[in-house]
Design goal:
Layout: E1 47-49, E2 52-58, H1 59-72, H2 77-96, E3 101-104, E4 110-114, E5 117-121, H3 132-148, H4 156-174, H5 187-200, H6 222-237, H7 243-246, H8 286-295, E6 299-300, E7 309-317, H9 322-331, E8 337-340, H10 342-345, H11 349-357, E9 361-364, H12 378-397, E10 403-404, H13 413-421, E11 425-427, E12 431-432, H14 443-452, E13 458-463, H15 470-485, E14 489-490, H16 493-497
Parallel strand pairs: 6-11, 7-8, 7-13, 7-14, 8-9, 10-11, 12-13
Antiparallel strand pairs: 1-2, 2-5, 3-4, 4-5
Helix pairs in contact: 1-2, 3-4, 4-6, 14-15
The chain binds zinc ion.
């Protein structure tokens, strides 16, 4: 089949993105001091890989084009197949919001999907399936680079990590032979690569590096093989992760795993809610949280290792208190996670943009704070609370959260599994400051709970919305001081759990 016709919208495509390694027009957010409202996202540019030009098409462009062709040759089952496949891919993408999906269609070119665009070679005679890994690698690279590097130059580290992810995904999902998996490597290789990555993480990318795939010199492909190893180690280190959820983490998350050592620190056995049940409070009992945690690797109360890290989390915003919280966090140059409500975002776009631009992570706390456990149908939970909220966030900041915090911490076993099947992870907390109970809890109570029960890789529950949060704001300074005095590092839940964003 031929797909040599330009879809109509692409004639106005982003001409600024001429370089193979630039995707600045994909809706990325450069940091700036003043939040700005999002503008219309331009269609992405063509991607050139291994001498083949891939062009982005929307689902409706392709369906229309393929339908036209079908009228001309009614018995063309390839095209019927393609329409069906595109519809399935389109639905799957809408559900999972994975960074990309790939598809190898019999007799047709490789198709890769990203942010609603299907990439096909301009010249259908190219045997693009052979280049699928490179195509995916390029899509991952473009996305990772536009979000993680804040306008800095592309580095060798970016390229190697993206190539390794592409190899792993293609290999595991599509049974594509991976030429780099059987390269033997030793400790010296790892040490050399670690040095190279550390040194080049801030230096511009050079296509002639001997570590890159396609280089005919010594060590060709070695960088890919070693990076695959690092990704696999990270996957083991972070229970509940998968290649998709890891693929958008920053490079720094993988550097500790560029080592030959098989001795990874094992996850801790005891995962517990530290703040004790208070019988007169209407809360999910600790026993229930522990039970769910044991049953589901995708349900978290806190981090699973013993690093001196702590994750502050703020629920029920954004609200009038959000800016005050952001100011205190900025003063100490620390990052936190905000579980926002879809209904609160509508009139507070600048707050969401400020959270994002200050480097904090945004999580999903449902649309209208409905007790998830009372929603019988999975599809209702998904449509009315989760994905609509994710869509709003995606439109504003360019990624959809992968972390869901159920309102009141209430969620059923089957719902945790359902969300996991759609790429979401469920995260509650290990320390409840009970700042939500404004009638009885004062500033000192909040400070006491947050500091008295401190432990490595703690997740602390607080609120920047949903009521009068002046006590929370007042307590925050002392809580930060306490953990800093104890030598803790403040991290987002993305860093703590190894679960990246959906882009
Ligand atoms: Zn809440």
């Amino acid at each position: 089949m031929k797909l040599a016709v330009n879809p109509p919208h692409l004639f106005s495509a982003c001409l600024l993105c001429l370089s193979q390694f630039m995707l600045g027009c994909g809706g990325s957010n450069s940091p700036s001091s003043q939040p700005t409202l999002p503008t219309q996202v331009s269609p992405p540019a063509n991607i050139e890989v291994s001498g083949i030009t891939y062009q982005p098409w929307t689902h409706s462009d392709l369906t229309m084009y393929v339908s036209d062709q079908r009228l001309a040759s009614a018995d063309n089952t390839t095209m019927l197949d393609l329409i069906n496949n595109l519809t399935t891919l389109s639905d799957t993408f809408a559900v999972h919001r994975q960074p990309w999906l790939i598809h190898l269609h019999e007799q047709s070119p490789a198709i890769a999907v990203q942010a609603g665009y299907f990439y096909l070679p301009v010249n259908a005679n190219d045997s693009a399936a052979e280049h699928t890994v490179q195509l995916i690698s390029q899509l991952i690279l473009n996305k990772r680079h536009s979000v993680n590097n804040n306008g800095q130059a592309l580095t060798l580290a970016d390229v190697l990590l993206s190539q390794a992810f592409a190899s792993l995904i293609a290999q595991t999902q599509f049974d594509i032979e991976n030429p780099y998996q059987n390269l033997t490597h030793n400790e010296a290789d790892f040490i050399a690569l670690h040095t190279v990555l550390s040194e080049t993480a801030k230096q511009p990318f050079s296509p002639t590096s001997r570590w890159l795939v396609g280089d005919s010199q010594l060590n060709s492909g070695m960088g890919n093989a070693l990076m695959q190893h690092a990704i696999k180690q990270a996957h083991i280190y972070y229970p509940g992760s998968d290649y998709i959820s890891l693929s958008t983490l920053p490079l720094a998350s993988f550097l500790p795993f560029v080592t030959h050592s098989a001795e990874l620190p094992m996850p801790i056995n005891e995962v517990t809610l530290r703040t004790p049940d208070i019988s007169e409070y209407d809360q999910v009992p600790a026993s229930e949280m522990h039970q769910l945690q044991h049953a589901h690797p995708t349900y978290y109360l806190h981090g699973l290792h013993d690093k001196k890290q702590v994750a502050l989390s703020f629920d029920d915003g954004p609200s009038t208190y959000t800016a005050e919280v952001l100011e205190i966090l900025a003063k100490h140059q620390i990052h936190a996670t905000f579980f926002v409500l879809g209904q609160n975002i509508q009139n507070r776009h600048p707050d969401i943009l400020a959270i994002h631009q200050h480097g904090h992570l945004i999580g999903n706390h449902s649309y209208r704070h409905t007790d998830s456990s009372t929603i019988s149908e999975h599809s209702l939970l998904w449509q009315n609370e989760v994905t609509n909220t994710n869509d709003i966030i995606f439109d504003l900041v360019g990624y959809a959260p992968r972390l869901f915090r159920p309102p009141y911490g209430r969620i059923r076993s089957d719902q945790i599994e359902y969300l996991a099947s759609r790429g979401m992870r469920t995260i509650n907390w290990s320390i409840d400051t009970r700042d939500w109970h404004t009638q009885v809890v004062n500033q000192q109570d909040i400070e006491f709970a947050a500091s008295h029960y401190s432990h490595p890789e703690a997740v602390i529950l607080m609120h920047d919305g949903g009521g009068n949060r002046s006590n929370t704001v007042a307590a925050l300074e002392n809580i930060i001081q306490h953990y800093q005095n104890e030598g803790y590092q403040f991290v987002t839940l993305e860093t703590l759990l190894g679960i990246g964003r959906a882009r």
